[in-house]
Design a protein that fits this description.
Elements (H helix, E strand, L loop, with lengths): L2 E5 L2 E4 L9 H13 L4 E5 L11 H13 L1 H7 E7 L3 H18 L3 E4 L2 H20 L1
Parallel strand pairs: 2-3, 3-4, 4-5
Antiparallel strand pairs: 1-2
């Protein structure tokens, strides 16, 4: 899940990865985003498919990392915005969103286009900015 945080507070995640992809780089990119101390959103326009599987070692490493960074995940990541133009696929993600939020500590939002995804991200970021100053 390569991450691109060059447009922070918009952090783009890709599920297109090479077989020998180093997930430690992904965790480091997230940790770098945490160190900024500013809320952000994660966006993806290539959501995982049902064929996206992780090895038991990857799952264990992810859970251990999540436990270590639970506070940052809950306080700094405002949402994961999944951009999926296909209505049927978006609908299929809805039930998964509940389990996703419980597992990761932040909600999954669905958008039909990149423009809608950016609109949702902007709204979440501005709402957080207003609540932080108000």
């Amino acid at each position: 899940m390569p991450l691109d945080n060059t447009n922070f507070p918009l952090v783009w995640m890709s599920y297109d990865e090479e077989p020998d992809h180093d997930h430690d780089e992904d965790f480091e990119a997230l940790e770098a985003s945490f160190r900024r101390g500013t809320p952000f959103v994660i966006l993806t326009d290539n959501a995982p498919t049902e064929h996206h599987e992780h090895s038991p070692e990857e799952k264990k490493r992810t859970v251990l990392w999540m436990k270590k960074h639970k506070a940052e995940l809950r306080s700094l990541v405002l949402a994961m915005i999944v951009i999926e133009p296909n209505l049927a696929k978006r609908m299929a993600f809805k039930p998964f969103g509940v389990a996703f939020a419980k597992f990761w500590g932040y909600p999954m939002k669905l958008a039909s286009s990149r423009e809608e995804g950016l609109e949702i991200a902007g709204k979440l970021l501005s709402e957080r900015a207003v609540s932080a100053t108000g």
